[in-house]
């Protein structure tokens, strides 16, 4: 069982967001954000990855290995951060765009969580 936050919008309907870790955000960061219509987050992730990767490349070329290694681990840590915070960022996005938190529910899938809340 997972914990889901179920939101409702008068025009767009229901959305459910799982509490905690987001595997899709970890593996598909900017694509995941685009799929959720979080355009500014998607852009921020892309820009951050480009900046960190560019710095890593520059440090490798000028043979400052310690900094290149730090940039490699920083990029890795950034992906972990997106996985940890992704669902929280999704919740904030929904609230900013007119959704209202209806209930917090324990269910196996987000669709079943929405179905239960919709039938109140």
Question: Strand percentage, roughly?
Answer: 15-25%
Share in helix: 55-70%
Mean pLDDT: 93
**Rounded to an integer, what's the Rg over CA atoms?**
18 Å
Q: What overall form do the CA principal axes indicate?
A: elongated
Poorly predicted ranges: none
CA-CA gap between termini: 20 Å
The largest β sheet comes out as:
3 strands, antiparallel
Number of helices: 4
What are the secondary-structure elements, in order, as H or E?
A: EEHHHEH
The structural domain count equals 1
Structural class: alpha+beta
> Order of strands across the widest beta sheet?
2-1-3
Q: What's the total count of β strands?
A: 3
Short description:
The protein has helices at about 25-35, 40-60, 65-95, 110-120, and strands at about 1-10, 15-20, 100-105. The chain has about 120 residues and is an alpha+beta fold.
């Amino acid at each position: 069982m997972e914990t889901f936050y179920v939101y409702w919008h008068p025009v767009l309907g229901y959305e459910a967001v799982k509490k905690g870790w987001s595997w899709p955000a970890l593996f598909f960061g900017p694509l995941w954000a685009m799929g959720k219509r979080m355009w500014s987050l998607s852009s921020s992730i892309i820009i951050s990855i480009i900046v960190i990767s560019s710095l890593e490349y520059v440090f490798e070329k000028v043979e400052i290995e310690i900094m290149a290694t730090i940039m490699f681990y920083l990029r890795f840590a950034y992906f972990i951060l997106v996985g940890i915070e992704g669902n929280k960022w999704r919740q904030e996005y929904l609230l900013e765009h007119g959704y209202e938190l209806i209930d917090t529910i324990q269910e196996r899938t987000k669709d079943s969580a929405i179905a239960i809340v919709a039938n109140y």
